[in-house]
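Hello forum,

I keep getting stuck at the same step: I have a sequence, I want structure tokens, and every attempt I make locally crashes halfway through. Rather than fight my setup again tonight, could one of you with a working pipeline run this one for me? It's a single chain of 122 residues.
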Amino acid sequence: MEHSSINPNKAAHIGHLRNAILGDTFVRLLRFAGREVDVQNYIDNTGVQVADVVVGFLHIEKKTRAEIEALAAAPRFDFYCWDLYARVSQWYARRTSRTFRRGQQRSMRLKKGTTKRQPSPS
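Reply #2:
Ran it on my machine without issues. Output:
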């Protein structure tokens, strides 16, 4: 049984706790009934989601590293990322021909550890 998976780009809320409790309860009930249960608990596809937020900061908001660090130090940064993540999805939808190429480029740069900003075609 898979449960408690939370999107790392969204603010945590009571629903996440509820899902963890429900998942754990179902596992315990099934085990009590004599069933063999394998529990899977993972954190979504963090790499892609974090890369999308980076795309938002660099290509939509055109933020510098210092500006991003200042935001990260402020309260409710998780809510900020949640909203930005949603805006990136909309931005990709309007630019479907660039979505795959941009994702590949961002992923390769993240893997290499480089953050050099490339010109962004609008």
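Residues 1-44 form one domain. If your local run keeps crashing, start a new thread with the error log.
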